[in-house]
Amino acid sequence: MTALAVSGCDLLGDSPEKIAAAREADGRAIGGACRHAGRAIEDCYALNKKADRAAVFAGWRDMNDYMRENKIDTVAPSVTPPVGGRRDVAPEGESESQAAAESADAERKPARPSGGPDAAQ
């Protein structure tokens, strides 16, 4: 009877303790990943605004210690963080920086109406 009552608690939603433990684990994972990628802790905070800062720092520090003890080099991130909440994806055969530059150029150029004196140019 007790087992049935306890198993029903999960049906009502996650407990505050379970949510806090998940946020802590996520923050530590984010911090560890940032350190492994060679990111400064300030950059990690800026890229993960919703993450718990104390947990992010704890994960970053743990990974820093682990990497020093085991002489592990950083791994450069292969994907740049999105700028302005937008992610530019490069077409096949084109680098991400080329795609981002072309996208930025296209946004800066004003649209010209078809016809008129500028149409011949």
Care to give the gist of this entry?
It contains five helices and no strands. The protein has 121 residues and is an all-alpha fold.
Q: What can you tell me about this protein's structure?
A:
The protein is globular. Helix 2 (16-36) crosses helix 4. The chain contains five helices and no strands. 53% of the residues lie in helices and 0% in strands. The protein has 121 residues and is mostly helical. Residues 86-91 and 103-113 have low confidence and may be disordered.
CA radius of gyration: 24 Å
Q: Considering DSSP H and I runs of 4 or more, what fraction of the residues is helical?
A: 40-55%
| Overall outline | globular
Total E-strand runs: 0
- Low-pLDDT stretches are 86-91, 103-113
Category from helices, strands and their pairing:
mainly alpha
Q: What's the number of helices?
A: 5
